[in-house]
Amino acid sequence: MKASMEYLLYNARVDVIFQGHVHAYERFTRVYKGKGNKCGPIYITIGDGGNREGLATK
After folding, report:
1. 14, 20, 21, 31: which could form a disulfide with 9 (CB 3.0–4.6 Å)?
2. b/e per residue, 42-54, with b = 16+ CB within 10 A?
């Protein structure tokens, strides 16, 4: 989805993108096209709601 939507979100001046999948919290600097960009959005991934696997050890 990022590859197909990134240009649209960047031009719409989106500040934050919340998404779910990984069973951990991740926060990055503002990113556009895989590189730090002061105008790009911040991606926040959270997916531990309903996680039954337990804590990641690696």
Report:
1. 14
2. ebebeeeeeeeee
> Which of 10, 16, 9, 7 is CA-nearest to residue 39?
10
> What contacts 37, CB < 8 A, 6 or more positions away?
30, 31
| Position 51 in a domain | no
- Within-domain flag for 58: no
* Count of structural domains within the chain: 1
CA distance 36 to 3: 16
Domain that holds residue 27: 2-45
Please give the structure tokens belonging to residue 53.
């696997």
